[in-house]
Design a protein that fits this description.
With 563 residues, the protein is an alpha+beta fold. The chain is 38% helix and 17% strand. It has 2 domains: 363 residues, ADP-ribosylglycohydrolase fold; 149 residues, Jelly Rolls (Sandwich). The protein starts with a helix and ends with a strand.
């Protein structure tokens, strides 16, 4: 007796149900990558970054809005690879790896912020703004929000996001999640998407050599309506229409360097915006046509951030090759025992921590680690569509999260210049006084010497509308003359207004600058005798004086004297 057709139908349904992803009701597909091949390609990704950044280092921001002439390009030398150990292009992103190594792949964004705040290396642009916000107690994600950070679309997270794809082979959603955690320390909107795009390209580079497909995979990981995605689509399209990268460069300049619509939330014409620099990365990848040297050289010759861009392009294209297939001019002089500046990693240590995190990421995403018949470990990686972050516009941002570090969290941020360190510095100069709304410019804190005086406290207004305030409660004794005595100074190129208040009543307002303190310092006395027998709130304001230039307050003495 033959089974009925309905039996075949139900059998097929049953088989299908056994092979679907329960959450998405889609067939689960996997890609397989041996751990050996993973390490080989991941190592190549780091070497590509190292090669690109060291080749381009002598040209960084020396060629703004002009192509670097071919005869002015540095020439690659195998020994240059070791110069990368001192490059911020690499060691900043290793701070993020260290956080995850110590606190796990699922570490909190607040822990990421604390660790980044405690980093001791020099930073600029969005990185510096975000870190200073963190040190002052503005916790992520607000540390990267445009209300507190004036550089939201800067290139910073883009140049630090390589790690996010190198620990996530074939897993774009891990790279996206990394952007939501580490990218928000310093960026917002396109600034975050730039890094997520970069990370997703690396993730795909483990499986594809076709660079267009790698770029398309990155594009799928960011909001389609974003300007960054528009730029990626433009460069992909133009590279098919325009035969030379130099002509494509001109097209990019017209739209992404000259059109004000694409410079919103950009820090002027300094050339640090993520879109134009990412366009240069893409031109290197697309017009390099798989040639390692040409990919790096073209990305560099486009100018602006001409060490970071070839580093990103080099990292992606080198990943598609794998370390074992790289020409020895990039590898033969590599000193694997050297440690990257400001990190706990040399090359073997870096590879080990990336593998450790990749294992966690694969399992977390529903993959597994198997062994083949020879006992070799294989990553079995689920294929999942990218789920981009929500669309945000840096020039029209959403509300802040009202995120502040707790007192216990602030106690963990101990580097010079942090709120905790500043509080201690104030106490050293003037016990009993506290500080609020201190900005980060001019490196506030207690200095051993300044303008001929020892132990000088530097403060700075938070912004043009917000004074830095030193304050304390003071008990004014009865029957005695009490005087607040201050010795204040100014930067030789600046001026600020000193305000003294008692219980919110203004007692003194005086400019501190060249006209009032021609020898840098000014002694000020304020009689407090009218408050005899009372406890009052004293406040000293470091107020902006109009011109936003060297507004820092210099304090060599703060005392309350009685006679």
């Amino acid at each position: 007796m033959k089974p009925s057709n309905s039996i075949y139908v139900w059998f097929g349904v049953w088989i299908t149900l056994l092979t679907v992803n329960v959450r998405g009701l889609e067939p689960t597909q996997y890609r397989r990558l041996s751990v050996k091949d993973y390490r080989d390609k991941m190592k190549a990704g780091w070497i590509g970054q190292m090669a690109g950044v060291t080749l381009g280092a002598p040209t960084e921001f020396k060629y703004k809005d002009r192509i670097i002439p071919e005869n002015e390009m540095p020439k690659w030398q195998p020994r240059l690879i070791n110069d990368a150990f001192e490059q911020d292009d690499l060691y900043v992103e290793m701070t993020f790896l260290r956080t995850m190594e110590q606190h796990g792949l699922d570490c909190s964004i607040r822990q990421a912020g604390i660790d980044f705040a405690n980093s001791g290396y020099n930073l600029a642009c969005a990185n510096n703004a975000g870190r200073e916000n963190l040190r002052m107690g503005i916790a992520p994600p607000d540390s990267g929000h445009p209300q507190f950070n004036k550089c939201p679309n800067d290139i910073d997270y883009q140049i630090e996001a390589d790690y996010s794809g190198l620990i996530a082979p074939g897993l774009p959603n891990v790279a996206i999640a990394m952007g939501e955690k580490f990218g928000r320390l310093m960026n917002y909107g396109d600034g975050i998407y730039a890094g997520q795009f970069m990370g997703a390209m690396y993730a795909e580079a483990f499986f594809k050599k076709d660079i267009v497909k790698v770029i398309e995979a990155g594009l799928m990981a960011i909001p389609a309506e974003s300007q960054h995605a528009e730029m990626v689509r433009d460069v992909l399209k133009w590279s098919k229409e325009i035969p030379t990268w130099e002509e494509c460069w001109k097209r990019c300049q017209e739209k992404y360097r000259k059109d004000p619509e694409y410079l919103k939330a950009s820090t002027g014409l300094d050339g640090i915006d993520c879109k134009i620099n990412a366009a240069y990365v893409l031109m290197g990848l697309l017009y390099g046509k798989g040639d390692l040297d040409q990919t790096i050289i073209i990305a560099c010759r486009c100018g602006l951030d001409s060490d970071c861009n070839p580093s990103s392009a080099g990292g992606v294209i080198f990943t598609t090759f794998g370390f074992s297939k790289l020409p020895d001019r990039f590898t033969k002089d590599l000193n694997e025992k050297s440690f990257f500046s400001n990190t706990a990693y040399n090359v073997p240590g870096l590879l080990d921590v990336c593998e450790k995190l990749a294992r966690q990421a694969i399992v977390k995403e529903g993959g597994r680690i198997e062994k083949d018949t020879k006992g070799e470990e294989i990553f079995v990686i689920p294929v999942k569509p990218a789920k981009p972050s929500k669309l945000e516009l840096s020039w029209a941002p959403g509300p802040i999260a009202e995120s502040k570090f707790t007192a216990a969290e602030m106690d963990q941020i101990t580097v010079p210049g942090s709120a905790v360190a500043l509080k201690k510095d104030v106490h050293k100069l003037a016990p009993g006084w506290t500080i609020a709304n201190c900005g980060t410019e001019m490196e506030p804190g207690l200095r051993d010497g300044e303008l001929g005086r020892k132990n000088v406290l530097i403060t700075h207004p938070l912004d043009k509308a917000t004074a830095c305030v030193l304050s304390r409660m003071a008990d004014i004794p009865a029957g005695k003359k009490t005087t607040l005595k201050l010795t204040v100074g100014h930067h030789r190129g600046g001026e600020w207004d000193l305000l003294v208040k008692a219980d919110a009543r203004e007692l003194l307002r005086k400019a501190v600058g060249e006209a009032t303190a021609p020898n840098d310092w000014l002694d000020v006395s304020v009689d407090l005798s009218k408050y005899q027998g009372k406890s009052i709130l004293l406040e000293l304001y470091n107020q902006p004086a109009g011109e936003w230039c060297w507004e820092g307050g210099y304090w060599a003495g703060i005392s309350i004297d009685t006679e």
